[in-house]
Amino acid sequence: MNLAVRDIRHNAGRFAFTSVGIGLLLMIVMGMGGIYRGLIHEATLLVDRVGADLWIVQGNTRGPFAEISRVPASLEDRARAVPGVAQARRFVSHTIQREHEGRPLRMVVQGLSWPEDRGDWVTLVAGRPLRQAHYEMIADQSLNLPLGSRIRLGKDFYQVVGLTRGMVGSGGDGLTFFTVSDAMAIQFDQPGEATRLDRAARRARVEAVDLGRLQPLQLERAAGLAKGIPALAPPQVSAVLVTLQPGADVAAVRRTLATWPDITVYSTREMKDLLLAGMVDKAKRQLGLFRVLLIIISTIIIALIIYTLTLDKIRDIALLKLIGARNSVIGGLILQQALLMGAFGYGLAWWIGRYAFPRFPRLVLIDPADLVNLAIIVVFISTLASLLGIWKAMNVEPNTVLSA
Amino acid sequence: MNPPPAVEVTRLRKVYGSGHTEIVAMRDATLSIAPGEIVGMFGPSGSGKSTLLTAMALINPPTSGQITIGGIAVMDGPRALVDLRAFRRQHLGFVFQKANLIPFLTALENVQIALEVNDVAPRAARKRALELLDYLGVGPRAGNLPVALSGGEQQRVAVARALANEPGLILADEPTAALDGPLGRQVMELFAKIAHEKNAGVIVVTHDHRTLDVFDRILDVEDGIIQIREDSQPAKS
Q1: Side by side, which strands form the sheet with B92-95?
Q2: How close, in Å, is residue B230 to chain A by CA atoms?
Q3: What is the CATH number of the domain that holds B179?
Q4: What is the pLDDT of residues A292-316, one digit of tens each?
Q5: What is the domain range of residue B110?
Q6: Nearest CA to CA, how far is B233 from chain A (Å)?
Q7: ipTM of this complex
Q8: Residue B94 bridge partners (DSSP)
Q9: Where are the domains of chain A?
Q10: Domain total of chain B
Q11: B4 near B11, Cβ under 8 Å?
């Protein structure tokens, strides 16, 4: 006869409410694991999908995902000249926040190296890749920009020609894909007044030195377009992505690139590790600590509930001892109740999570291995939680049954 | 050869506390109950009845003296000579003032559990429990939880539980205190029937003098001393 099940059946309401509470706690524990997995997935999504073998970034930096990386756009051409390199692409990535239809719109602007890269590698759920050099964009569904809609960014309008699903940056903001030149135009856009002030400042600097007096034509140049001034640096990109020829020796290409002192080269694996070791690592530790705390809280709650349930049955336990029930029968009753409570809570957490997690603003990715691990943890904490009740039950004297 | 006494108590002494707070609850009590004998134990509150009963129930070890149950020496002073819990489940039955049924078990399960803790297979335990409930007239109430049973029915279920493992000794502590007169008498007569039919020694602690005729022998306990009432006769053994 299973005493635990019969007692639970008799106290079904209390057991159910407690299990719901435990279930919600475990759902948060489960969800935090899922958020961590989601963070990793989102953070490494672009690095995985972009399909580069090597990342060339600013010298002595950890690349555009860890810090500001600026390399000249012409680095693309230098990289192409290295033996074994099949393709080199400019990589521009930055996050912007704009107002759109009265709501804040935050997105990661991603530059595609037009015309070699039109976004054919991007998995679309609707629409098409880019077909022209300007004013087209591919957007993630999470941005709620419908196919065909137009959005003003900087001084230009861009039309959404393709939609992706689940493509977000490491911060959880939806990815958008433009040509590199459009992405840079969005990045370096400044108001007309700022441009005028910039030109006036340049003119003032030229006037202030001998150059302005000796070569008056320089004054005209200084007041003109920035791209018409050779002394000013050309536009810069975040990184250059290198795709190797089939069968090319990666180490040899890296050795060649490593001789260039102005850049640093990372493999895709290294770039992912840098991403995870930097931004995600702290989030991982933060979430991990919360999970540990919640597991401890769950253990304490289960322990207290089981202890209370044991106190409620103390006379019944004394009676069982009086009629000769072994300790294993009494301990088993309490342990099974704790395990059942944990199991119900776990099941409920999983069931609620299935419906709740997809509605979370950030991706919650539940890994089967994490579910198994959590199940093992629940068994452990349920067993641990039952010890207090078992200890109480073991210390009950059979003659307690007579004392009322 | 005569069967051994259902219980034999020799020079049992129980002292609570020590020094200035020392209370002698039982003074060198000697007692023997034969199988099939029902004994009533009377006495005022605090006289030592419950001390003697709980000592024989092996849940309140004596300070000194010996207890032998069914011919097996079980206590020598405070020292247990056997595994007391195992001994209780095999040889003793208990009935209390309150039925003390486990509230989350049905009447049938309350009896069945006593058999299952004694390693009787669940199916056999169920069959035996049903037989006992029928024997005590509460068979039709087997599927009810205690809360749905009347006081008398609950007490009958408790008696069935006490009888489950066919104990040689049944100890009842004021089993009719919570019952009205006729019902109380019914339960007492039931104990007498059990003692005689099941050949078990039955000791009943009671204050109810209306049931004196039910007992084979009456013991008066006062200040920890047992006296056999003169008008009562020991049962044949």
Answers
A1: B92-95, B169-173, B201-205, B38-42, B217-222, B225-228
A2: 31
A3: 3.40.50.300
A4: 888 888 888 888 888 888 888 888 8
A5: 7-228
A6: 30
A7: 0.82
A8: B171
A9: 3-43+279-402, 46-277
A10: 1
A11: no
